[in-house]
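Input.
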Amino acid sequence: MTKVQKIINDPENIVAEVIDGLVLASHGRLRKLEDAPALLRTDIEPGKVALLVGGGSGHEPMYSAYVGRGLADASVCGNIFASPPPNHIHAATVAASQGKGVLYVYGNYAGDVMNFDMAAEMAAEDGIEVRTVLVNDDVATDKPEDRRGIGGAFYIVKIAGAACAEAKSLDEAEAVVRKAQASTRTIGVAVRAGSLPETGEPTFELGEGEIEIGLGVHGEPGVERSALMPADELTEKMIDRLVNDLPFRRGDRVAMLLNNLGATTQMELLIVNRKARQILGEKGIEVARTDIGAYFTSQEMAGFSITLIRLDDELERLIEAPCESLPFTHR
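Output.
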């Protein structure tokens, strides 16, 4: 099998060099923490509820680059596809804290949960209150407590950033973000695996002409492996599973994210969007907002995910609130 070639230096330095690149591209809006692979805003408002996000690297721009006004105040970066360790999360928590507590938002993976929980305990010893909202939007996993955090993380981080910017308390911010969490559903599909930068080896294998529906962003097994099918047929299967899961109902207003997993063209995503809007319209579900692009990738995985979040007046206001970061700015 041919290994994937990447433009990198020493694989051991990937995370540090990515952080350096982000800091330089921010032109003073971001700074690197000295004692941990973490990014912080240089202009965090004193006295605000702080938002800290994070997880394994290799999914850029998630979570590392969503740091900025109206988004996260800090992001802590693990190694490729690996959770950051508790001491790094703790260091970022202390640096981000502005006296009103810190909200953690990250994906529901065992290593992340363990390490962020340990960091929260360390922060409590410093007198910093921490609350956690797990991203668990993946409908391919049956048990809610086991659901992985995938593309819907973007909408939850976007809403969390706006909520933390205006919240008077950590309780208030947590409650809004939990509502967003409960309203978000995602499913993905891959037609080709991504790879590990250290080795160039694929994260999973697909046969010639095969696709996998419902796989995780690290290559975890999905719910269906089948032959490649036309875009309209695939989109209908994915939308039906999403709609039936919450369930979404006639009369709902939603935001929809079509997320490029790394190597899917805009052409393909626009074709999917066309059919998705048709299906949702026939079901009486109004799409109030559409986002299309690379928001949560898995290296050069070819495929995409569809996220739907059911909106009420509060969530729609927060998802439309101004924000500024390197990969995403909304005014």
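The mean pLDDT is 96.
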